[in-house]
Amino acid sequence: MKISSKRAITISAVVTAAAAGTICAAPESAARLANGGYRISTTQFGVVYNSYARVDGNRFIHLGAFGTRYLTVHHTRSGGYVDDLGGRFIYDRRPGGVYSGPVFLGPFVVGHSTMRPAR
User: Residue 52 sits in a domain of what CATH number?
Assistant: First the structure.
């Protein structure tokens, strides 16, 4: 075989392997917050708040004591988080479609929040 033929075969093998690796790569875990209605129970500074919310794509519609708030969901591999009134509510996926996690005010953990599917 000539060198140009060997080079062409080698290049085509490398390109084929790269394409196969790109196409057959494992998909990224999609644990983002699922769309739907939720009951929320939040404990902050020892006070329990109960409210309702709806997730619709990147929108988080919160029906709470301060009226209806339209927030942005930042999806992550383990669930997602929502920033509201200077606080960050982190929701990690748990069994049964439940999301829960800490509530931060700046760098400090000030509570805990749980979202359960509204049925």
Answer: 2.40.128.120
